[in-house]
Amino acid sequence: MAAGAITVAAAWSSTPASAFIVFDPRNYAENLLSASRALEQINNQITSLQNEAQMLINQAKNLTSLPTSLLGQIEGNFSEMKNLLGEADKLAYSVQDIESQFTSTYENFGSDLSSQQLVNGARERWQTSVSAFEHSLRAGAVAVDNIKGTQEQTSELVDASQSAVGVLQATQAGNQLLAVQAKQIADLTAMLAAQGRADALEQARKAAAQEQARAQFSRFMTGSSYSPSSVKMFHD
C-alpha cells in the first residue's frame, strides 16, 4: 500500500505544470457573456432580416394591381349617353347653334315673311318641341337602364376594395368607384338637360305662337285686302 502511494506521488511529481487544466471561473463567465451577446446579435440580425423580408412582401402587395377593372364598361356608358345627346334634332346643345337658329325660328315674324312662311315656321317649332320631348324620354330611359349596371359595378368594386391586398388595389378600387359615381352624375345631368331643353323649347313655342298670332292679326287688321261690310244675320 505504501509502495503504491509512493508510485502515484512520484508520477504526479514528474508531470509538468503545463499539462494540468486550470478552471478559471472569471474567464469562463466572461466567455459565456460574450457568447450570449454574440447569440443576441445573431437573433437581432435574424429578426431584422425577417422584418425586411416582411416589408418587401408588403411593398409587393402594395404594388399589386387590382385584377378587376370596370373602366371599359364605365366609358361605354359615358359614350352611350354622349352619343344620345349628339342625336338631338333641330336645336341641339350648341350655344352657337341656339343663338343662330333661335332668332330666325322663334323671333322673326316680320312683314317680309309670307303667310305660308309663318305657317311653316309654326310647324317647324311644333316639330322641334315634339322631337325635344322624345329626346328627353330617350335620355331618361338610358339613365334608368344604367341603374342596374351601376348597381352591379358598385357591388363588384366594393367587394374588390374590401379584399384588396395592398394600397394600390384599394386605391384603384376607390378610383373606379369615383368613376361610377361620376357616370351616375353625368346620366342625371344629361337627363335634366334634356328635360330642361324640352320644357324651354315648348315654352318658346307657346310664346312664339302668341307673337305670331298678334303679328298675323295686325296684318289682317291693317291689310288693304280687308274691307268691312254689313252682314245680315237673319232674314227680315
What would you note in describing this structure?
By secondary structure, this protein is mainly alpha-helical. 78% of the residues lie in helices and 0% in strands. It contains six helices and no strands.
Task: Give the percentage of residues in beta strands.
Answer: under 5%
What is the helical fraction, as a range of percent? over 70%
Number of helices: 6
Q: For the report, how would you describe the main beta sheet? A: none
Structural class designation: mainly alpha
N-to-C CA distance: 188 Å
Q: Tell me the series of helices and strands, N- to C-terminal.
A: HHHHHH
Residue stretches low in confidence (pLDDT < 50, at least 5 long) are: none
Number of strands: 0
Alpha-carbon Rg, integer: 48 Å
The geometry reads as: rod-shaped
Q: What number is the mean pLDDT?
A: 76
Question: What distinguishing features does this structure have?
Answer:
236 residues, 78% helix, mainly alpha, rod-shaped, 6 helices
Question: Would you summarize the structure shown here?
Answer:
The protein is an all-alpha fold and 236 residues long. It contains 6 helices and no strands. It is 78% helix and 0% strand.
Secondary-structure topology with pairs:
Elements: H1 2-14, H2 25-62, H3 71-86, H4 95-106, H5 115-162, H6 167-222
Helix pairs in contact: 3-5, 3-6, 5-6
